[in-house]
Structure prediction request, 169 residues.
Amino acid sequence: MLSDFNGYVQTDGYAGYNFLDRTRHLGCLAHVRRYFVDSLKNSSYKASKSFSGEIVKDIDEVFELERKLSTKFNDDERLNYRRRKLLPVVKRVFSKIASVTASAKSALGRAKNYALGQEKHILNIFEKGYFELSNNSAERAVKESVMGRKNWLFSLTFEVAKANGMHFY
Prediction:
């Protein structure tokens, strides 16, 4: 369906989108953050927890700077603000991530590898003022239909599926 698409696509790191040759991929900073949150939960090493906590805090700073962005800004003003305020913080975060030593099998190692694999896609966000830092809003928009599909899956008749669908919407 998307094989002829030419433009920007924002996704998490799902490799299923890699076939889109003529697109510019935009990453999701929230997914990068999520890997470090998981590392905080799953690591027994104090140093790993401390590092992961620091990265989560730094990414939270980026989202906080984004929240301070005026809704009155046009796309060019928004891009300029982001490049001045957010981009240096994002680059600092990725520099920190690259500097840590961690086993690839550890939670921190998985977070590091995911983040560094997404770095160029995250930096693509700073090409246009109207791009988002995460794809969370898109994921929330499709979540209802995905959840509904699970709820309707075992409906024995069309009428029951329709009744269930009306109940959930």
Remarks:
- The chain has a mean pLDDT of 83.
- The longest helix spans residues 75-99.
